Amino acid sequence: MTKFTDLGLSQPVLQALDMKGYDTPTPIQAQAIPPVLEGRDLMGIAQTGTGKTAAFMLPSIDNLREADNQTPFKSCRMLVLAPTRELAGQIAQSAKDYGAMAGLKVQSIVGGTSVNKDRNKLHRGTDILVATPGRLLDLIDQKAFTLDKVEILVLDEADQMLDLGFIHALRRISQLVPEDRQTLFFSATMPKQIQELVGKYCRNPVKVSVTPESTTAERIDQYLFMVQQDEKQTLLEMILKERHEVPGKFERVLIFARTKHGCDRIVKKLGQAGVPANAIHGNKSQPQRERALDEFKRAKTPILVATDVAARGIDIPGVSHVLNYELPNVPEQYVHRIGRTARAGRDGVAIAFCAEDERDYLKDIRKKTDAEFERLPLPDNFRAVVEGVGPTKREQKPRLAKPKVRPAGGAAKKTKPKQKHTARKGKPEGAGQGRPQGGKPGGGRNRNRNRNRSRAAQG
Ligand code: AMP
């Protein structure tokens, strides 16, 4: 097996890795580090969670040390572009960790913070700058920063930058960096527009791919509930409070919703049901986002409801479950979402809630990603709970109580949870194990039934 010491990295970088406790490179690191050390351009197809940050940061730190140029005034030697504030923050932190022994100055600038502070911060220049494209161009337009000393340019999560509308910013930036530079280009997917960008930015890049395009990560077990849209909240509450038949031990649950408003609504209703959760999306202020992420990381509030954009690139080891409250309409987005779990060699569970009008999305996801979903039955008492406490009092729909549709994984697919998950389930239901929040030991379904009864009595 390849070791970091086999890859040609310098002693200070190896020491920093030792301090982090990493001894074995991930596949993308093993493939990318040697050519990057040689100064080659690189095009990497990799999702977050594969260790790609170190794959570009470690050899770049060594290349910067080797070139030994001065920290340039109002400019930087290495520029890393990232789509979101969170990802930029994480990359900057990694640069600081990995470069601890190399004496390189690291700064990051992102939108939503004071431009004046950023201007002051960059006045004396920096060795490594991690930036979101918009904020970087603001400073360039104000003549507070230039890119003419850039030796290494990294585009991280390029497909997401395009999704966020940064295409013009990226084109402009490509005109502002010196021709003579090294470019490292990373994207989780390779649609045509990205390939064009690669052509613009890279010269004869070495291509490295750690997951084939649009396939879902191998260590993620994927499950599916067929459930009506207006019954999803009830199902979510039952899952989170009672751990209804859901495989895997809950540690941190990341829930995806399509809209900011949707995130807030889910959080509010979970709160009313006694399940504390936080939301993270574009309307939240930076301190709010940071607090939510921090509480999630520390497992103080281990349920986080997010939009795609906000959650992109979040690196939180220990996301045990990704729950797709709504399915994304773009299959690639599904890949990104479930990529939040099963990071750094761990297993993960992804659960999708699919409503009738989302069947086409599900079909696309399965076609594009070869995802094999195992369909889970709705809780035994689900219908009763929906009837009693659901948002609308509706007639029971036999299709949901006794699904007629064939299992989403195909006729031959199992409809019962796999054995290994049953084994992993731990204590009997209601015993409290793995429950992220709320729900007293011994509560569980009975408590819900009681609640249901009392509501029914009131009604
Ligand atoms: P990334 O894909 O760069 O976001 O990295 C995903 C996670 O894996 C981060 O928490 C890294 O700190 C961690 N990681 C990266 N490289 C290694 C490694 N060689 N061994 C163990 N963990 C790693």
TrEMBL record:
InterPro entries found in the cross-reference section: DEAD/DEAH_box_helicase_dom (IPR011545), DEAD/DEAH_RhlB (IPR044742), DEAD_box_RNA_helicase (IPR050079), Helicase_ATP-bd (IPR014001), Helicase_C-like (IPR001650), P-loop_NTPase (IPR027417), RNA_helicase_DEAD_Q_motif (IPR014014)
Molecular function GO labels: helicase activity; hydrolase activity
Domain spans labelled DEAD-box RNA helicase Q: 2-30
Superkingdom field: Bacteria
Keywords: ATP-binding, Helicase, Hydrolase, Nucleotide-binding
Region (Disordered): 387-459
Pfam families in UniProt: DEAD, Helicase_C
Helicase C-terminal domain residues: 219-384
Keyword ATP-binding: yes
EC class: hydrolase
PROSITE patterns, per database record: HELICASE_ATP_BIND_1, HELICASE_CTER, Q_MOTIF
Motif segment (Q motif): 2-30
Helicase ATP-binding domain ranges (all copies): 33-208
EC number: 3.6.4.-
Biased composition (Basic residues): 413-425, 446-459
Coiled coil (residue ranges): none
Signal peptide: none
Compositionally biased residues, Gly residues: 429-445
Family from the record: Belongs to the DEAD box helicase family.
Protein name (record): DEAD/DEAH box helicase
